[in-house]
Amino acid sequence: MPVTITPVDIGSAPGDGTGDGARTAFGQLNTNEAAIKAAIEKSEVKDYVVALGDEVTDMVVGDAAAVFRPSFALTLTGIFASVTTAPTGSTLIFDVTEGGVSILSTLLTIDATEKTSVTAAVAAVISDAAIAADSELQFNIDQVGATLAGTGGKITLLGYKT
Question: Where are the alpha helices (DSSP H) in the chain?
Fold first, then answer.
């Protein structure tokens, strides 16, 4: 997430009616280094790409297609999936669990003939965005394409260190 800096007229003197709020906010930020560092850290969204197999083998339904343990706690801000070969005949459906419990209230899907969840008819919904350090994240394949399963599945987690 990029940080946007917008110029603000802070006026020529306190109380002149122009920019007093900006001047106050700048003064507070200037004296609160910890808040600045925290804001910068949260603005540094990282992506973690997890492969669910190789690029050419058909995906199969099953739990723990991949397992990942983050080295630090993170807050998820987004999730999406992609494939090398699109599924046909039905939608691909994925779930991600932390300690055996789904972090999604609406599962992640890739519609038939599509290569990404970004264009899915139903968007995934993250219900548990707080991921603990060293927790076990399992990436499960709940459904594959009925005609062509799909290959090269990857799930991308977006988030920041907490």
Answer: 20-30, 33-43
Q: How far is CA 139 from CA 2, 12, 66, 155, 156, in A?
A: 28, 57, 5, 8, 11
**Distance of alpha carbon 16 from alpha carbon 151, whole angstroms:** 64
Question: With the C-alpha atoms ordered 46, 111, 115, 50, is the resulting torsion angle positive or negative?
Answer: positive
Q: Which residue stretches of the chain have pLDDT < 70?
A: 1-32, 41-42
How is residue 109 written in tokens?
């899907």
d(CA 118, CA 149): 19
Q: Rounded to an integer, what distance in angstroms lies between the CA atom of residue 127 and that of residue 124?
A: 10
Do the Cβ atoms of 92 and 59 come closer than 8 Å?
Answer: yes
Q: Which of 11, 40, 13, 42 is nearest to 162 (CA)?
A: 42
Interatomic CA distance for residues 143 and 149, integer angstroms: 9
CB count, 10 Å around CB of 81? 25
Of the candidates 30, 67, 25, the one whose C-alpha atom is nearest the C-alpha of residue 50 is 67
pLDDT digits (tens, 9 = 90+) for 3-42: 555 554 545 555 555 555 554 555 555 556 777 777 776 6
Going from the N-terminus, what domains does the chain have, and what CATH number goes with each? 1-44 (no CATH), 46-161 (2.60.120.340)
